[in-house]
Amino acid sequence: MSEIHSGGCQCGAIRFRMEGQPKDVSVCHCRMCQKAFGAYYAPLVNVGTAGVTWTRGEPKRFASSNFVQRGFCETCGTPLTYEAPDGLSLSAGSFDEPARLPPTIQFGIECRLPFVDGIPALPARATLDDLDDAPFLPDIVSRQHPDHDTAEWPPERPA
Ligand SMILES: [Zn+2]
Ligand SMILES: [Zn+2]
Fold first, then answer.
1. Protein residues within 5 Å, CB atom, of ion ligand 1
2. How many domains does the chain have?
């Protein structure tokens, strides 16, 4: 039986399904990926021969170069794709279960930010350790799409 991975953007307007084994899972340190993800590096699942279906909506695309398009949700801004002549990659963090797709290689290391390797050694706190500084935390109502497919989104909210 083929493995199935689902995912989508933060607001839920766009959902996808990947069927089969990806070619590789990577982090890319290149400057274009840093900018496109607003992050120190981009985690990417190169789908290879696995099948990808957009099960709700479709990304809007920006041609970040003459060869590459980058797809994102135009409603919430989640980065979703890296589309190059040699194939399609999906942003690894947008999968419902990113822990099932651990990275095995790094790309673009000439742009790797010098402090990235030191991050695991930084002081570490859990979200609810910060209640004194952020007393609203227990009252947060998430509008993020849940980590599974849904029949309808957004759900009806009480008026
Ligand atoms: Zn969205
Ligand atoms: Zn890159």
1. 9, 11, 13, 73, 75-76
2. 1
Query: Which residues have CB less than 5 Å away from ligand 2 (the ion)?
Result: 28, 30, 33, 108
% of the chain residues with pLDDT over 90: 84
Distances (CA, A) of 35 to 13, 40, 41: 23, 8, 9
What would the 3-class secondary structure string for the chain be?
A: CCCEEEEECCCCCCEEEEECCCCEEEEECCHHHHHHHCCCCEEEEECCCCEEEEEECCCEEEECCCCCEEEECCCCCCEEEEEECCEEEEEHHHECCHHHCCCCEEECHHHCCCCHHHHHHCCCCCHHHHCCCCCCHHHCCCCCCCCCCCCCCCCCCCC
Ligand that comes closest to the CA of residue 106: 2
127 inside domain: no
pLDDT digit string, tens, across residues 32-56? 999 999 999 999 999 999 999 999 9
The CATH code of the domain that includes 24 is: 2.170.150.70
